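Below is how a single chain appears once it has passed through the pipeline. First comes the sequence as given, then the structure the pipeline wrote out for it. We keep one example in the README because the format questions we get most often are answered faster by looking than by reading.
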Amino acid sequence: MVPTAEEPAAEAPTAAEAPAEEVVEVTRVVTEAVEAPAAEEAAVEEEAAAVEEAAEVVDLGQEATGSERGGDQIEPPSNGPKVDAPRQQTAVLATTNITDQPRAETEPPPAPLPAANVNPLTAGEIDDNAQWAAYLAYLASYTANDVVRLDVSQRHELVVVDGAERPLLGVELTIQANGQEITRLKTGSNGRSTFYPRPFNAQSPTYTVTAIAADGSRQTITASGSETQWRVVIPNASQPAAAQLDVLLLLDATGSMADELDELKSNIRAIASQIAALPGRPNVQWSLVAYRDRDEPLAAQIAPFSADLNTFVVALDGVEAAGGGDYAEDVQGALSLAMEQFAEQNGRQAVKLIFLVADAPPHLDYADQPSYAELLPQAAALGVKIYPLASSGLDAQGAYIFRQWAQWTNGRFLFLTNDANGSTSAAPSVTSSGATYTVGNLDTLILNIIRKELSGL
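Resulting structure:
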């Protein structure tokens, strides 16, 4: 298990990344009072969303809806009780492979994104890696003892390119110090990954970095612990022959998530068609892990990766929003299942993305499953980026944890700003540390994220 660490100290911010061009965005600065405009009306025309601003104070400690919070709070991870599963249970119960259902014989032709809903879902987006000082301030300002502390204040960005200075996808990186392996990483489509020594208690004056490209080409460098960026050139490495994309939906399937599940079911085929038509015509595989809590009759449903969109759509249609007793859900168990799906695909040189859609934080008191402090390094070693989508009702604990997951894996944190009925959703814990965020139509936002992830190929 990766050791937890002390509160991080602030570090100079990096340059902010430009928001996606094709989303009509509203940039907001969150002050101590934390005001977040909400969409009054949305008029969607050909994949563009225009959002009118309306003042609304964000309640950072709002009560969650749907998943009911009981009277007892989760005890701090450092001293809380460990809950063992009943005898017949494992880390995730009643796991079902839902691709055994009958599949459709033929797939209909590609469809455009559907016509605008009366109240289309809109979402905000925060890139904590691009607003580094604000993120470190946010971590330091969170005083509750209900999360796993990961000290990311010391970070080293690895950039791996070929002889023509083109970024290399899927390069396996091994980080060593004093002859001991610390961790492994894998580059994304931009040829980048990030190493954080402090959670591993691995501060060192120098590190040895070994990079192995997909074609077996390799390079080894000695990197300084005082430098924030490490550059590796593999002169003869070859690029992937074709763009490949693996997308896994990690879905909270409790009763409070009905609106979000219905939105995905309604739009997923049109979204998939738009993705398949992107430049490079990516070869796309889809997977699904739907979860509840471990005491639910059907705690997890899994659809392994498949290039057959019909198989995936049938699996998604088979997920019903139901259950949800206490507030927290078995998100860590579900993330572990997601890592297993990607591990089976590890030989595939693909852009690997998780879209986590949830309105409740994970249980941190289950003794028989890995902590997210162990799962995040696994994701980084597989080259998986996590894009959490916080639904209305997610509390400050859940927002903190999901922002950790996005930041560690070089994803971004998304949050709904309205629901399917057009009601305004408060941005969950969108910091008092000066972070900015952008807002757009949810479907278009997801499409633009994938477009950007594929742009380096």
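The longest strand covers residues 244-252.

See the next section for the split statistics.
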